[in-house]
Design a protein that fits this description.
Oligomer: heterodimer
Mean pLDDT of chain A: 92
CATH class of chain B: Mainly Alpha
Bound molecules: adenosine-5'-triphosphate, magnesium ion
Number of domains of chain A: 2
Low-confidence stretches of chain A: none
Pfam families (chain B): BPD_transp_2
Shape of chain A: globular
Largest sheet of chain B: 2 strands, antiparallel
Strand order of the largest sheet of chain B: 1-2
Shape of chain B: globular
Membrane topology (chain B): Multi-pass membrane protein
Distance between the termini of chain A: 31 Å
CATH topology of chain B: ABC transporter involved in vitamin B12 uptake, BtuC
Main location (chain B): membrane
Radius of gyration of chain A: 17 Å
Strand order of the largest sheet of chain A: 6-7-8-3-9-10
Order of helices and strands of chain A: EEEHEEHEHHHHEHEHEEHH
Number of helices of chain A: 10
Family (chain B): Belongs to the binding-protein-dependent transport system permease family. LivHM subfamily.
Strand content of chain B: under 5%
Number of strands of chain B: 2
Structural class of chain B: mainly alpha
Helix content of chain B: over 70%
CATH architecture of chain B: Orthogonal Bundle
GO molecular function, one term (chain B): transmembrane transporter activity
Number of helices of chain B: 11
CATH architecture of the largest domain in chain A: 3-Layer(aba) Sandwich
Strand content of chain A: 25-35%
Distance between the termini of chain B: 44 Å
CATH superfamily of the largest domain in chain A: P-loop containing nucleotide triphosphate hydrolases
Largest sheet of chain A: 6 strands, mixed
Number of domains of chain B: 1
CATH topology of the largest domain in chain A: Rossmann fold
Number of strands of chain A: 10
């Protein structure tokens, strides 16, 4: 279980995340939706340890993790596929995937190999392109690669930052389906950040609506999906 | 013809040394984003240590490996004691501007160079000293014909090629090498992947220090060592990096060899004083016509 408690994050003068609290249940998909600049990316970067919060706590499986280094947060079981399909363009597809498992090589070499082949089963297009430079991939393939890289670390919590960004509906559907299968079948906990509220709320169990760095709604996804007035006020549709 | 071949082989063995210096600079650049001007200070220091050991009767190879360790340890110490704390402090008001943030570690490395030079001056009383080469420095003879190169030239080129191959295999084939490339290319994605980029960066300083020390050991038999005898080599090595493109290992090595040839031919066919002018012109030419270097990626440039 991930618990965010009164979390505030600011950049010099901008208060990007303001006293937010919510919980992501184990084995469920929780989605955080909100317009541009709502603070979604800031929230995920703070959970991953890339930014230190100004105040508040983040607790994961009963342990406070705010202020920990990103590389240790991965070791604690939290992996992120960052915004903009971040992969390392100059490395090959296979190297990008292996990168996510390097820290487990010494302790569990056999499982690293298994994890890599699992990600190829999940996304066969990546296997076909494994010795290609990641920079030559399409946007959708990059997103698959970013997710695979996160998955080979065998996370218990997967953070996804706008996986649908700039992708064709068909690809979005494929990626979203894969994520929900992982969640249902393997008990993966997912925190999905999206601007595309319809797609996200359709597969999520729980929804958190963020506006200008504050939580304005925190309710079951179906309920949030049905609430026309909230959506009109904060998402504009 | 003999003169030409002589210049060619001298250029090759000098170029090999410049290539090593450039390789050391690139390793730190890719990891830490700064030109380590202290590098030849580290090399000078470890060459002095080697000369002391050899003067006391130790075997050349023992001195060689001790020197490598000294160079590597100095690299780690500079990163951990100076560069890391500076990076941590860079959020404060005075250091806030990005250009200052980039400039300060470079200035610090110049400061460290000064410190290493004066400490070496105190310990070894600033005396010039050297040690014999591990193999003969007279020209090779094959069937009564004098060859245009010495055993030591071959030794130098051999060692350098060995190091270049070992370094590229390490980077391309091992998992630590992959971690190093990933950290250099995109440290944020690397950290999100669980790579301890800070330790990996220190490892870059360690390898760079060892590589630079080899360069120092290889020039000493020819030039003797004094606290600032390696300054010129640093400038040449830096130029080699700029020629090759600062983020390209292969490019900087080729740049090193290229400069070796240029310098050898100028000293043979022209007056040695023109070397500086030539280096300067090459540097300016590259800056004007191909600022990313011959092999550098355009976006990879960090300054
Ligand atoms: N590095 C930064 N420095 C200063 N301000 C920042 C920085 N990153 C984000 N901000 C500001 O913080 C606020 C929240 O940004 P954030 O990227 O978290 O939004 P978001 O919800 O992810 O938006 P989007 O949907 O466009 O990705 C914005 O006002 C943004 O301008
Ligand atoms: Mg965002």
């Amino acid at each position: 279980m991930l618990q965010i408690n009164n979390l505030s994050v600011s950049y010099d003068s901008v208060q990007a995340v303001n006293q937010i609290s919510f919980t992501a249940q184990k084995g469920r998909i929780t989605t955080v939706i909100g317009a541009n600049g709502a603070g979604k990316t800031t929230l995920l970067r703070t959970i991953s340890g890339l930014i230190a919060p100004k105040s508040g706590t983040i607790s994961w499986s009963g342990r406070e993790i705010q202020g920990m280094r990103p590389e240790n947060i991965v070791r604690a079981g939290i992996a992120q596929a960052p915004e903009g399909h971040s992969v390392i363009a100059e490395l090959t597809v296979e190297e990008n995937i292996r990168m996510g498992a390097l820290f487990r090589l010494r302790t569990n070499r056999a499982d690293v190999r298994a994890a890599i082949s699992e990600s190829y089963e999940l996304f066969p297009r990546l296997e076909e392109r494994k010795s290609q430079k990641a920079g030559t991939l399409s946007g959708g393939e990059r997103q698959m690669l970013a997710i695979s890289r996160a998955l080979v670390s065998r996370p218990e919590l997967l953070l996804l930052d706008e996986p649908s960004l700039g992708l064709a509906p068909l690809i979005v559907e494929q990626i979203i389906d894969t994520v929900s299968i992982l969640c249902r079948e393997k008990g993966l906990t997912v925190l999905l950040v999206e601007q595309n509220a319809n797609t996200a709320l359709a597969i999520a169990d729980h929804g958190v609506l963020l506006a200008l760095g504050k939580v304005v709604a925190d309710m079951p996804a179906a309920q949030l999906r049905a609430d026309e007035s909230l959506r009109a006020a904060y998402l504009g549709y | 013809m003999q003169t030409f071949l002589n210049a060619l082989f001298t250029g090759g063995s000098r170029g090999a040394i410049y290539a090593l210096v450039a390789l050391g600079l690139v390793l730190v650049w890719r990891g830490a984003g700064l030109i380590n001007f202290a590098q030849m200070g580290q090399a000078m220091f470890s060459a002095y240590v080697a000369s002391t050991l050899i003067a006391q009767g130790y075997n050349y190879w023992i001195a060689f490996f001790v020197a490598l360790i000294v160079g590597a340890a100095l690299g780690a110490a500079i990163d951990i004691l100076v560069i890391r704390p500076l990076k941590k402090k860079s959020g404060t008001a005075i250091l806030g501007s990005p250009s200052m943030r980039d400039a300060i570690p470079v200035i610090a490395s110049l400061g460290i160079l000064g410190i290493l030079q004066s400490v070496a001056g105190m310990i070894w009383a600033g005396s010039e000293r050297g040690f014999p080469a591990p193999v003969s420095t007279v020209a090779l003879k094959v069937g009564g014909n004098t060859m245009p190169f010495t055993y030591f030239d071959l030794f130098t080129i051999g060692i350098v090629i060995l190091i270049l191959i070992a370094t590229s295999l390490f980077l391309a084939r091992t998992s630590v090498g992959l971690a190093m490339r990933a950290s250099a290319l995109n440290s944020e994605v690397a950290r999100l992947s669980g790579i301890r980029t800070r330790s990996i960066r220190t490892l870059g300083w360690v390898i760079s220090g060892a590589v630079a020390s080899v360069a120092g050991l290889l020039v000493t038999p020819a030039t003797n060592i004094s606290p600032n005898s390696l300054d010129l080599i640093l400038i040449i090595g830096f130029t080699a990096c700029v020629i090759g493109g600062l983020d390209s290992l292969l490019g900087s090595v080729i740049g090193g060899f290229l400069l070796g040839f240029v310098i050898a031919f100028i000293s043979v066919y022209d007056i040695p004083e023109d070397i500086f002018i030539a280096i300067f012109l090459i540097l300016m030419g590259i800056m004007f016509f191909r600022p990313q270097g011959l092999f550098g990626s355009e976006v990879g440039r960090r300054v």
